[in-house]
Amino acid sequence: MAQLACSVIIVSYYTNGSLFECLAALFAQQTDDLTIEVIVVDNGNPASDSKRLATLAAAQRIRWLKGQGNIGFAAGCNLGVRHASTDTVLLLNPDCVAEANTMRHLLTFLQTQPEKTLVSGWVTNPDGSEQRGLRRNLLTPWSLFIEMLPLVKHLPPLARRRLNLTGQPLPPVATIRVPACSGACMLLPKALYEQLGGMDEGYFLHVDDLDFCLRLQQQGGQICIQRNSVFAHYQGTSVVSGKRVARHKRNSFNRYFAKHFPRFWRSPPGWGLRLAIAINYWLSKSS
Hints:
Elements: E1 4-12, H1 18-27, E2 34-42, H2 47-58, E3 63-65, H3 73-82, E4 88-92, E5 96-98, H4 102-111, E6 117-124, E7 135-136, H5 141-148, H6 156-159, E8 175-178, E9 180-181, E10 185-189, H7 190-195, H8 208-218, E11 222-233, H9 242-260, H10 262-265, H11 268-286
């Protein structure tokens, strides 16, 4: 049987016990013919968690990158990939827990695909339901505008064009092609990641994954979701202010549209979308 190998990049910031549940699930999947290199990019953790990470690093169970401070998700991913020693990398959120044989399924599938392929597992809520944001359209002014419409779910033609496709009918197949996916779980060749320039470090948190998916599609790549490779995602485990997260999301949307849709962003409709993003931020901030 061919040897499988992957470097898993986990960017952690005060994610508490879920990080160690994530690590345990990865350790359990390693076999003689499946090597999993685990790289934890420590953007900040409590002293008790740092002690546990130090123990794992001393036992050579993980590579522990620390001391850089909180550099954000995108920069953390890039740092981790630079230290990866295998030809395949998996960007994985620290609160994603892989079911048995998930890594083998993903890696075996990737080997059968063209070189410009990104694969996501089937990311679920803890109750097993599909997580919002797993299946996505590309982020455009139109897809975001529809996403912000409160009655969009009652208008099926528009719902198919919204940013998040959760709730749309699923084809009866194991592999789904999508325009974009969540950054919670992204498996791809390291060479492809480097060819695309990695994650854009101008994003601190949020939207960096959508930017990456857009650049991959522009290079003729494809994005697949493997439904038989399940990760339970305990979303929002980081001890971070909701106001701070909302501010980063607003800033990231602004950066994305200024970067990829500059003419629109300077036009009157662009100013209207800026206002909608700002209003959404203030509503999130006050809730």
